[in-house]
Design goal:
about 475 residues, Structural Genomics Hypothetical 15.5 Kd Protein In mrcA-pckA Intergenic Region, Chain A, three-stranded antiparallel sheet, six-stranded antiparallel sheet, single chain, alpha+beta, about 40% helix
Amino acid sequence: MAADDNVIQFPGGGATAQNRPPLLGFDPFARDQPTLLPRRPERVRFTVHIDLDDALPPIWRKLQLAGDLRLNQLHDILQVAMGWTDSHLHHFVMGPGPLDRRIAPFVTPFAEVEGDEGIHEADVRLDEVVSKPDDRLYYEYDFGDGWEPTILVEKVEQWNEGDPLATCLAGQRACPPEDVGGVGGYGELLDIIAGHTETMEPEYVEQVLNWLPEGYDPDAFSVDEVNDLLEVPELPPLTDWHPAIEGLFQRVYGPALAELTRLVARAAEGSAPSEAEVGALARRYQFLLRTVGTGITLTAAGYLPPKTVDLLYRELDMDDGWIGKGNREDMTAPVLNLRTSATTLGLLRKSRGKLTVTAAGTKVVDDPAGLLRHIAARVPLGKPHEKDAGLIALLIMAAGDNPYHESEFAGRIMFGLGWRIHGDEYGRAAYQWAHSTIDVIRSLGGWLGKQQHTRAAQALLRRP
C-alpha cells in the first residue's frame, strides 16, 4: 500500500504551466476576443464530424449534440468520444471559418488560475460558436502532443423532446494513447505494433510496448461503448445532499464524470429514513455512550476491559457475522471499530488511560436524530484523499452496492479526481483510504447488514 506521502493530487489531471500552447509569435494579450453568435431561442440538434487533424490513418467521430451544451460539457463529451482521459490541458478556439490564431481561446479554469482573461468556456453554448453546416469549432488537447480535432457541422435539425444531449453515430479507429508524443510519436507507435522495428533499438521497442495501455488496438472503436459512457441520467438538486458531492463534480474529469453522475443518481433514489430507522441506526453508538457513562479505565495496552467488550458484543448482536469469543477488543473488530470511530467522530475522548464521553456525545446520547446529524457533519473522515474515497464509498453503499466489490469503480473515480499514487493499484488504494468512513457505516448498520448499510449511507448523505 502506498504511504500517504506518496499520494499526490493533480487538479485538472496534472497539467502544468509548461504544457501551455505555443504562442506562435503572437502576444496573447494582443489577441482579439471571439465574437459570439446569437443564441438560438429554441434547442436544436447539431450533427458534427470530428477529425483528428494530421492523423494517418484517419481517426474521426460523428456525433449528434444539443445546441445548448456548454463548451465545458462539450469538452467532457469529446474526451469520452475520442477515448482520452482528460489528463492534460485543453481549450476551444472560435471559428466558424478557418482557424485564426489571432483569436483568443476560450478561458478554462486552469487558464484563469494562470491569469488569463477573456470569455469562459463554461459560459459559452455550442450554438453561440456554430450555427450552420460547414461551420467549424477548433479544439486543442494536450499542448505537448498537440492534438487538434476539428469539429465540423454537417447538419442542423429540430430538437426532439427526449433526445440525449450527446450521441455517437459513427467513428473510426481508437484515439492515440495519452503522452504518445504527438503525430510523430503515434506514427512510430503504429510501426512498432506492426513489427516495423528494423531501424529501432530493441530496448526502445521493449520500453514502448511495456508503456502501451493494456489491450490497446489502434483499429478498435465501438459506438455502443461510447454511447454507454455518454448516457447519463439527470441529477437531482444537490442542495438536499452532502455539500462535498457538488465538490466532486467541480473536480472530476474525463470518463469518470459520467460514472460519478450515474452513481449519484442511483444513490439519490432512496427515501429519507423513518423515525424508527433513525433509532435503529443510532442505537449502537448510543449504547456505547451509555456504557462508557462517567468513564472507563482502559487496559495497559489501551483497550476496553474484557467485561465491557463482552457486554457490547452480546447486547449489540455483534456475533452476527463475526466469529470469536467477543471478550478481547483487539480480537473483536466490530467492537474495536465502534469505539475507535466514536472517538474519531468526537463522541468519546481517550486521555491518560481513560475513556470518557465528550460534551457532544452527552448531548446526543438520548437524541437519535441529533446523533445522526452529528455524524453526518463529520463524515467522510480522514485526509483529503481519504475524504474523497470515503465519500465515494458512502455513495456506493447508498446505491445498494458493496464498496469492496466496487473498489475498481471507486479507483477510476479517484483517478478522475486527479489523485495519483506510486506503486499501487487504485481500486485497492481507494478501498483502504475509505476504511475509516466504512467503519462508521458498519457501526451504524451492523457488520453484515447490507440493507442497513444502504439506509445508513443514505441517512448520512441526505440533508434535512
